[in-house]
Amino acid sequence: MGVLLLRPGRRPMFPPLDQLRPGDNGLVGLGGDLRPETVIEAYSKGIFPWDGRQPIPWYSPDPRMVLPPSKLKVSRSLGKLARQGHLRVTLDTAFTQVMQCCAATPRPGQPGTWITPSMIATYTALHERGIAHSVEVWEAGALVGGLYGLAMGATFFGESMFHTRRDASKLALLHLCRRLEGWGFELIDCQQETPHLASLGAAPISRAQFTARLRASLAGPGRWGGC
Question: What structural domains does the chain harbor?
Answer without folding.
Answer: 4-60 (3.30.70.3550), 65-226 (3.40.630.70)
